[in-house]
């Protein structure tokens, strides 16, 4: 039997803050990689150590700007041309995931395009977390390990020891996620029904369910402009809720998000470090996914099951 391929972990520029935590949890050092920037805006990626015959894990979230995604593509291409044995892209936040279908005429399906570009670049496997749409896994013809932040959120919610707990979905699309949490935690569920005339603008919202005298937890895969969760929190408090908290995997937090959260009825907002926070906030708390990804990388490398990591 041939010797096992050595493991090497590298990080993209903007996700190094998380990659360092992951490598520390794994008890491994990050590999050396160099990014050279040119005056016209182009950049080049180069490994400063051999990856020949290695099982290479590349950690990079693809949040805006698109340079982060293109840097990942170049890291994959460089590893392939340097004769890496296997190339695994570890993408805690998978950008463009909201473009998973044609919801109107003459639009692109961005998530499928991203999947095609990653495959063409030469990646052998994807590890990601809480995709905006589960069906994106089907856009790939390679294995996709889809992790869930519930492994971190559920134990944390239990530690809060909240009485009269209610799980809420911020929209109809998140009903399945909220229902799974509600069943596992044995709590009721409410739904926020919203109507949008255009992206990031809510025209109308209604709360379906009883929140009076309840401690409400809103669950979502991401917070972008925070319009939905802050409006929902305000309406729930008006309908008699004791408190409203939010748990969201990806802290996109664009535009007026920080100001909206600070001035909202939300008691606390918990997010993961799949995306770095742009600034600090008294209400926003971060729960790290480093241990989860570290264990997954180790299990993938050793050809072990990762399903035992799933809480729900």
TrEMBL record:
It catalyses: D-ribose 5-phosphate + ATP = 5-phospho-alpha-D-ribose 1-diphosphate + AMP + H(+). Residues 7-122 form the Ribose-phosphate pyrophosphokinase N-terminal domain. CDD domains: PRTases_typeI. One of its GO terms (molecular function) is magnesium ion binding. Its EC number is 2.7.6.1. InterPro entries: PRib_PP_synth_CS, Pribosyltran_N, PRTase-like, PRTase_dom, Rib-P_diPkinase. Transmembrane segments: none annotated. The keyword Zinc-finger does not apply. NCBIfam families: PRK01259.1, ribP_PPkin. This is ribose-phosphate diphosphokinase. It comes from Alkalitalea saponilacus.
């Amino acid at each position: 039997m041939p010797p096992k391929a050595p493991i090497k972990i590298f990080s993209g520029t903007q996700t190094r803050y998380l990659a360092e935590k992951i490598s520390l949890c794994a008890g491994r050092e990050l590999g050396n990689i160099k990014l050279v920037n040119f005056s016209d805006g182009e950049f080049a990626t180069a490994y400063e150590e051999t990856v020949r015959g290695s099982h290479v894990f590349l950690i990079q979230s693809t949040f805006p700007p698109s340079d982060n995604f293109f840097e990942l593509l170049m890291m994959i291409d460089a590893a392939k041309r340097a004769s890496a044995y296997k190339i695994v892209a570890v993408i805690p936040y998978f950008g463009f995931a909201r473009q998973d279908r044609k919801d109107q005429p003459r639009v692109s399906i961005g998530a499928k395009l991203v999947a095609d570009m990653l495959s063409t670049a030469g990646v052998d496997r994807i590890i990601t977390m809480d995709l905006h749409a589960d069906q994106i896994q089907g856009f790939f013809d390679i294995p996709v390990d889809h992790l869930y932040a519930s492994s971190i959120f559920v134990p944390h919610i239990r530690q809060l020891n909240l009485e009269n707990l209610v799980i809420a979905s911020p929209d109809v699309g998140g009903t399945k996620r909220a229902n799974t949490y509600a069943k596992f935690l044995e709590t009721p569920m409410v739904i926020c029904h919203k109507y949008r005339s255009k992206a990031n603008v809510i025209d109308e919202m209604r709360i379906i369910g009883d929140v009076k005298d309840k401690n409400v937890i809103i669950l979502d895969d991401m917070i972008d402009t925070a319009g939905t969760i802050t409006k929902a929190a305000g309406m729930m408090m008006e309908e008699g809720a004791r408190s409203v908290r939010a748990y969201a995997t990806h802290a996109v937090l664009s535009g007026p998000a920080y100001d909206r959260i600070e001035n909202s009825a939300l008691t606390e907002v918990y997010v993961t470090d799949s995306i770095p926070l742009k600034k600090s906030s008294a209400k926003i708390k971060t729960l790290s996914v480093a241990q989860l990804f570290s264990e997954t990388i180790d299990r993938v490398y050793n050809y072990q099951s990762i399903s035992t990591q799933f809480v729900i």
